[in-house]
Amino acid sequence: MRRRIASLIFFTCTLTLASHTRAQIPENDPLHRAQSSATACTTDASSSCAEATAKILPLILGPSPLQENLRRLTDEIGGRVTGSPAMERAVQWATSAFRAAAVDVHTEKYQLPLTWSESDTRLELLGEIKFPLRTVSLGWSPATPPGGIEANIVDIAYGTPQDFAAAATQIKGAILLVHTDLGTTWADLFNEYSRPPEIIDRAMKAGAAAILWEGARERLLLYRHTNTTDGQLEKIPQAILAREDALRLSRTVLAYPGKIRVRFSMPNKIGPPADQQNVVAEIPGYEKPEESVILGAHLDSWDLGTGALDNGCNAALVIEAARALKATGLRPRRTIRFILFGGEEEGLLGSWAYVKTHRAELDKIRAVIIFDSGIGRVTGYSLGGRADITPAVREVLKPLDFWDVNRHTTDAQTGTDHFDFLLEGLPTLVANQEEANYLPNYHAASDTLDKVDIRELKLNTTIAALTAWGLADRANPIGKRLSRAELETLMKETALDQQMKSMGYWQAWEKGTRGRQP
To answer: Which residues contact 353 (CB under 8 A, 6 or more apart)?
Structure first.
C-alpha cells in the first residue's frame, strides 16, 4: 500500500505484533463460534449470507493452500517491483493459483510509462570525518550524473518555507538532508507522503542537486517509497538514509557548518515503456452476470523485502476467497470478479488502467472491495464517503457480528486501488484494519513472510469472501453511481479534495483525465 489517508488519522487502532506464521486454526478456536451465530443477511436472496457463511468458514479456517501459496509468492518470487522479471513471475503465480482453484482467469494488459531498478547506490563522506551512510534510492528516482555528485550537505530541517529561507544562500548545488518524524501511526505514514511534494518543489526552485530523506524507521531499517502518482520519474535524485546515520550526519553538519561534503552516486537503471498485466478471475452470476462486484488487492511490491504484508498476504487472500466461494458450489446473483492489480506502488496504475479500459461497463459494477493493510484485524470498511451504503454492508456482515466487524467509517481516501473507481462514482469499500505489525515493516527490508499471522489472515479472508458474496447476491444494488457534481460535493464534505491536492491527483481530476466526466 502506498499511503494511508487523512481520515484514518482519527481512527484509533490497537498496536499488536503478529506472531510468526502459524498452523491452521484449531477446531476449538473461538473464531469457529461464528458458525453458530450466522443469521440471514437478506430475506429474499436465493442463497442467504447465513448459508454462504456456514459453507465458507470451514473451507477457509480449515486446511487450505493459503499459506503455501503465500510462501511461494514471497520466499520464492520475492519483492515484485512493477516492470521487473519478479513481477512477471508473480502474474504467472496468480494465474496458476486461480486455475488450481477452478476459477476462470485471464490477464489484461496496461502500459507502464517506464521501467526502473536500483543499481549500486553509494553515499560517502569526503574529508577527515568518516562513518557509514547506509542509503537506498527512492523508487522511480532519476539517476545521479555519471560519476555521481560531490556537494555540501545542507540540513534543511523539516523543509518548511521558513527552513528553506533560513538556508537560502547555501542550497544551490547542495544535497539537502530533510528530517522526518518516527513513523508509528497511520497519521505518521500519511505525512510521509503528504509532505514531500512541496519540499521537492522548493528544492527544485532553489537549485538543490539532490535530496536525502531521514528514514522514519529505527534500527537502521531501510525501506523504499515513491512520490510519483503517474509512473513518471521523480523530478530530482532522492534517497532514504538510515535514521541513525541521518541523525549522526545532522549532528556532524551542525558541528562543522558549511564544511561537510559527500560523494553521492546512484546509477539507477531507467528503461522504456513496458506492457504489464492485471490478473482478473471471476465467478459468473446466475441472474445478472453482466453486473459485478469486485474484490481486489495489488500484486506488486517493493523489493528490499519480499512484500509479504504489503501486499502479498492480501493478494493471497483474494485468491483464497475465490477458491472458497467456488468450492461452496453456490452461485451469486451477480458476477464476483477477483482482480490483482499491478503498478499500485507507482500511482495506482493497474487499477487506473482497468477503469479506463472498462469505462463503458462502469454502470454495471455494483461495488469494489479492496484489502491493502497487511494482516491487522478488520474492524469494518471505509466506505468512500457513502453513508447511504452503510445499512447494506452491515446487513451482509451480520453473520460475523461475533467478530465485531461492522464498525464502518464514511471517510474517503486516496491511498489504494479503489481510488479511480471512487472517482467514477462507484461504491467502494476499503478494509479498515488494526495497525498490527504493518507500520514497522512498511516497504522495508523486514517485510517478509515471518511477519504474517496466518490465523489473522484466514479471519480477514473470511470477511472478504462473505462481503463479496453478500454484495453480489443481494436483490438490489447497495447504492447508485454518483454523478460528477455529486462527487464534487462528496469531496468537499470528506476533505478528499484536499488529500488529492496534497498527493498530486487534483490537476488530473480538474482536467478530466482522471475520474468521472461531466
So the answer is: 110, 111, 278, 343
